[in-house]
Specification:
By secondary structure, the chain is mainly beta. The chain has helices at about 55-80, 115-120, and strands spanning about 1-10, 10-20, 25-40, 45-50, 50-55, 85-95, 95-105, 105-115, 125-135, 140-155, 160-175, 185-205, 210-235, 240-250, 255-265, 270-285, 290-305.
């Protein structure tokens, strides 16, 4: 079962797609249920030509915050004058299961759980990367953690064909303070967390070759991010990395915790394999629609330093 949501003419709609499988018929059939929920769209959103789009004023505010954060991230590098900077880059995969619950004006309208295997089937593009830089002998560093996911699917509701396309950006950017330096293993960080959710729906009558229209639902959230990390070194090769943080602002709150085991390899042990687990829960509210997400699952990556 999959649940999508959209807004049209100042109302919220939920589209529930459910696969029915019977013993007598091994081939599943899909049922499409569309529900309309009265709700008032927030000031962040506008209706243009029947489409649900972001208010330009809100978009400009987000862009301004991102520009400010870019300047903040440039401070440590500028202070270092290009000398003694160490970099750490991690390319990783988070095999998370996703649970979502939807509410319209406080009334539950559905929920769904998507396994990582199901997500792979509809994923078109995805990447996840973590980059951190700071002075080798200093107390400050800056990092960016980026996740991008694009998915697409299609299904029929009677004679109507519905194609969906979704893009999601999750970006953390922060400055870290290491009281005892990087060798001490403990740091506090603060910055911003940006979340962008973009859903599009295309409706058509394939039998007649007639397009019926396109709806889109774009929403973004910029939050203040605060957290801490601790690294415990067992020996020169093995270490435990932990992280906990919380973000708040445009969203109703985003909590994330993770623990990773790091095994260093290569000359001077500048490369490492990371395996662990990450849990994240997020709550968003916009235009009377509440979305509660829960992401959890194993994470694996490769780290190289220079």
């Amino acid at each position: 079962m999959a649940i999508h949501q959209m807004a049209y003419e100042n109302s919220i709609y939920s589209i529930t797609i459910q696969d029915d499988v019977h013993e007598s018929n091994p081939n599943p059939s899909r049922n499409c249920i569309v529900r309309r929920h009265e709700a008032t769209l927030s000031a962040k959103l506008q209706i243009r030509n029947g489409l649900y789009v972001a208010n330009p004023a809100h978009t400009m505010n987000t862009a301004s915050l991102c520009c400010l954060l870019t300047l903040l991230l440039a401070i440590p590098a500028a202070a270092a004058e290009g000398d003694g900077i160490s970099w750490s880059i991690i390319s990783y995969v988070w095999a998370s299961d996703t649970k979502v619950d939807l509410k319209a004006d406080g009334t539950p309208i559905g929920g769904d759980t998507v396994s990582f295997n199901d997500l792979i089937d509809i994923t078109d593009t995805s990447f996840q990367i973590f980059v951190e830089g700071g002075r080798s002998d200093g107390n400050w560093s800056a990092f960016v953690d980026v996740t991008y996911l694009e998915t697409s699917d299609k299904f029929s509701a009677g004679p109507v064909l519905i194609k969906t396309n979704s893009e999601q950006w999750f970006i953390d950017a922060a400055i870290s303070y290491w009281p005892n330096g990087e060798a001490g293993g403990f740091n506090l960080f603060g910055g911003m967390r940006f979340t962008s959710l973009d859903d599009r729906f295309k409706f058509s009558l394939p039998a007649l070759g007639v397009p019926l229209g396109t709806l889109k639902n774009d929403r973004s959230f910029t939050d203040l991010l605060l957290g801490a990390r601790y690294r415990f070194d067992f020996n020169e090769s093995w270490a435990l990395h932990t992280r906990a943080d919380y973000a708040f602002g445009d969203s109703e709150g985003i909590l994330q915790v993770e623990a990773l085991v790091r095994y260093a390899i290569g000359k001077n042990r500048k490369y490492a394999v990371l395996i662990g687990y990450r849990y994240k829960e997020a709550e968003f509210e916009d235009g009377g629609l509440e979305e509660d997400f829960e992401f959890k699952g194993p994470i694996a990556g490769f780290n190289f330093r220079f």
